[in-house]
Structure formats: structure tokens, C-alpha cells
Amino acid sequence: MASPSQASLLLQKQLKDLCKNPVDGFSAGLLDESNLFEWSVTIIGPPDTLYEGGFFNAIMSFPPNYPNSPPTVRFTSEIWHPNVYPDGKVCISILHPPGDDPNGYELASERWSPVHTVESIVLSIISMLSSPNDESPANVEAAKEWRERRDDFKKKVSRCVFHEDRRLGFFVLCRGWANHAVVSIVYSTDVIVLGL
């Protein structure tokens, strides 16, 4: 079992790696610099999908025994998707505890493994946005619309993508001795000039 200090060291390393080698499609950093176990994530809607053009904010919460247990991810931005519960919690296989699925929907190899990183988790969520799984949905109504009323589904997703409060400015700054990543989303049309 991983100790809190082992989890902290691993999360520090993953944060440092993401600062040194940013990945297209998302930004991730600490929600609060004093807490390595709560991250803020912003996912850019993948090209050629219904989510293209959207910026979706989420909170990734890590348990003290990470990486032996998976984090939870909850969107704080409005999102309409079969694999996202109405409260924003993401439901994908790699975020389910390791071992056999008591419901028989997933293979043990599809569930959480300690080899996953923040990067692999977020890339899986981006993949989920591109290819919803409507066979075991978290949001039954979204799954029904996806299957039976695709135009209604597209309209709801479009409202999430082009929500009027989503006029944005976006930047990522890696700084300081601990290589903390600071992520800010600005919800206005104001121009912000940063002096570094």
C-alpha cells in the first residue's frame, strides 16, 4: 500500500513532468498549492467532435493511497455526456477500483491500475468525449438521446460548448521551486496583460 508521502512524491513528479512536457488537449495543475491531492484540470474539446471548441473544467481528487486506488474526476463545467453523471462525476473504466467488476461490464484489465498517470487519465477522458460508451451509461437520459434522438443530444452538447459565460482567456504558468502548475480560466471578454 502506498503511504501518503509516497503518493505525494508521485504526484509531485507527475506535476513536474506535465510542466516540463505539456500535452496537447488539456492543462492540469494544483487547485491549491498546499494540497497535492486536489488538481484542477481543463480539457479542450477534441477536434472533430461535438465538444470541439469547449473548455471543460474538472477537479481530480486523489486518495491517500494513490496510485493503488484511482482518483475521482468531477466536471465543474456543465457537460452533457452518457459517461458523466448529472453531478459531473466521470464514469470510465480506468477510474473504477482494480479487480473484477461486480456487475460484469468490465474486464479487470480495463479497470484502474497503478501504472496510470494524470496524463493517461485525462487522455482517456478526452477519448471518452470522442467516443461515448452508451452501453453502461452514467447519465441514462444522455445515452438515450445519443442513441435515439441525436439532434437533441447535439443541441444540449452545443449549449455546453458555447455557454455564454465561456468567453475565455486561458494560460498555464509553471513556476517556483516545486514546479507548481497554475491554471487559470478567465470568464470575461476583458483583455488581460501579464507581466512575467
From TrEMBL:
List the source organism.
Sesamum calycinum
Q: EC?
A: 2.3.2.23
Q: Does the keyword Chloroplast apply?
A: no
User: Which residue ranges does UniProt annotate as crossing the membrane?
Assistant: none
List the SMART domains: UBCc (SM00212)
> Per its UniProt record, what Gene3D superfamilies does this chain match?
Ubiquitin Conjugating Enzyme
InterPro entries, sorted: Ub_conjugating_enzyme, UBC, UBQ-conjugating_AS, UBQ-conjugating_enzyme/RWD
* Catalytic residues of the enzyme: C91
Organism placement in taxonomy: Eukaryota, Viridiplantae, Streptophyta, Embryophyta, Tracheophyta
**Superkingdom per UniProt:** Eukaryota
Give the UBC core domain ranges. Answer: 6-166
Q: Which family does it belong to?
A: Belongs to the ubiquitin-conjugating enzyme family.
The alphabetized UniProt keywords are:
ATP-binding, Nucleotide-binding, Transferase, Ubl conjugation pathway
Which terms does the record give in the GO molecular function aspect? ATP binding; ubiquitin conjugating enzyme activity
Q: Which PROSITE patterns match?
A: UBC_1 (PS00183), UBC_2 (PS50127)
Q: What is the role of the protein in this entry?
A: Accepts the ubiquitin from the E1 complex and catalyzes its covalent attachment to other proteins. Involved in the formation of multiubiquitin chains. Signal the protein for selective degradation.
Protein name, as recorded? E2 ubiquitin-conjugating enzyme
